Amino acid sequence: MKKRIISVLLSCALITTMLWGCGSSGQDTQETGKAKAAQEEEAAAEPGFVPGEFPISQEPITIKIMVPITASHSKSLGELDFLKEYEEKTNVHIEWEEVSSEAYAEKYKLTLASGDLPDAFGSGFSYDPSIIYKYAKEGLIVPLDDYIESSTVNIKKWMDGYDEFRKLSTYPDGHIYALPSIDENKNIRIDRLLFINKTFLDKLGMDMPATLDELGDYLRKVTTTDLNGDGKPEYGMSFEAVQDQQSIYTFLFGLFGVSWDTKSYMHSQEGTNQLQFAPAMEETRAALEYFHEWYKEGLLDPENFTQNSTQLKAKAKTEGIGASVAFWYLSLNDGDESVNEYRVMNMLEGPNKNQVWRRNGLIPGYSANQFFITSANEHPEETLAFIDYWMDNSDNALINRFGPQGYSWDYLDNGKWTELANIPSGEPRTMENSTLYATWGHGIPYWCFADFWAEKEITADSALERQEAINGSYINVAPPGLPDLVYEENENREALNIKTDLFKYVDSQIAQFITNGVTDDNWNEYLNKLDNL
Asked: Which residues are bridge partners to 195 per DSSP?
């Protein structure tokens, strides 16, 4: 790359010299001719960069990427065998700066503000598009349009073939600054569902709840009964305190008729183009009042506002929890059902028969703003080429996401592929043993479209159950989320300042209202503060 830049500069210098020295002696002309010939010979010797071919770089290069890592990741990304082999193949070494997911939301913002930048920010986190746009306009984040055209095969192919993805990735000034992750697996069109401890349910001799009130009756029994034999009552509803989005409680607010978009905090009324600010709706107040009563009764785990995913899993796997809002049962017991078996619930009815569930994003499976390159990067073409290989809508994407074929996924005799419930040792597949061999979507985006997922055959009972619950009830009451909202340049800074203070205040008040209750006075004070912010 550097040789080509030098060659271009040399060409400019030669042209200038020739124009300036038109009246020079024949000796000058002869020297110029020799220099030009030497330049052409050097250019011919330079093998150049060919998208889709290896090595990516003729000389070894290093790229620094900051990436979020969860506590469940068993290995550093740099220690994964498939990535080490790929580095040898490409002549590109990645120096991963791994930051805990809990701290990442603050860390990436501080890093951008400091100006001491890595070469890129990796996937596994939904970066705020307003922040990306702000620093792009300041020149710290580079546009990717030309590099997509010049140095990628898969990204260019899919951006050209799926116009909606290109549109969703394009900022108001017409540039693409960040790449999405795309996973059109129907089994993850909604990222979190209601789960219940079937072991507890069976011990109590109760039926699966069909309404929120019935779930409350079950939790009252759970929290007043020693079901695991340790001499004390059990936890009621417990879930993690997520760091990069609003409280998981907002999923449950849909049972009072309010959808809550993850990025804008807006409620969209299905069938209309009307938007309301969800935190200020009377339906939200009704939800807060209802769950405060649950909190007073001890039906809600007080640590829902503080515990991370690892702490939740340790509690749910050993002692057991009554219910949760989680991605999958693996998030709760790691597939070990010998003590506590968790099963997905169908969509519940709220107190007034409301049924709304939160769905992230306009297009299911499209996660915007997952990977971007900074101005510190001296090898932007090579960087995009490095990740492009894993965005092939085929085996490479699966290896990136799940690990090598035969470990946690494999082809069946009928030509279809499936995820494996157990690893080769016979142990249940868990997040921890999966991340011994795979990125699990962190660091490098992967792209798998509906046509490839259609070639998958679900064989695990729990996955079939999850898919049936989504298709049978959740997806029917989950209005599409909004696309990431990015304001025009002259409004973006103001919008970013407003969002930062406003959303932080809303999140803190959800915890306050559920813990301490809602009154006319504190609700009106809250609404006035929202207006002021």
From this structure: 324, 344
What token pair was written down for 257? 């008729």
pLDDT of residue 280: 97
In degrees, rounded to 5, the angle at the alpha carbon of residue 141 between the alpha carbons of residues 445 and 261 is 60
Instruction: Return the structure tokens found at 308.
Output: 């991370």
Give 421-477 as a 3 state SS string. CECCCCCECCHHHHCCCCCCCCECCCEECHHHHCCECCCCHHHHHHHHHHHHHHHHH
Residues 441-499 pLDDT 10s: 899 999 888 788 888 887 777 778 888 888 888 988 888 777 777 888 888 888 888 98
Return the residue matching tokens 């330079």: 46
Cβ-contact 389, 54 below 8 angstroms: no
Sign of CA dihedral 203, 206, 207, 208: negative
Report the distance separating Cα 85 and Cα 241, nearest Å.
Answer: 37
Which of 79-93, 237-251, 418-432, 462-476 reaches the highest mean pLDDT? 79-93
The residues, any chain, with a CB within 8 Å of residue 23's CB and separated by 6 or more, are none
Structure tokens given for 417:
């592929």
**55 upstream amide cis, omega within 30 of 0:** yes
Residue 440, phi then psi, degrees to nearest 5: 60, 35
Q: Is 91 left (phi over 0), alpha (psi -120 to 50) or beta?
A: left
The DSSP H or E segment spanning 344 is strand 342-344
Number of helices and strands in the chain (H, E): 21, 14
User: Which of 365, 323, 320 shows the shortest CA–CA distance to 344?
Assistant: 323
CA dist 519 and 52 (Å) reads 62
Nearest to 242 by CA among 178, 192, 179: 192
pLDDT of residue 282: 97
CA distance 109 to 243: 14
Question: Three-class SS of residue 99?
Answer: strand
What is the pTM (predicted TM-score) of this model? 0.79
Instruction: Give the three-class secondary structure for 122.
Output: coil
Q: Which of 369, 380, 371 is nearest to 121 (CA)?
A: 371
Closest CA to 378 of 146, 80, 64: 64
Residue count of the chain: 533
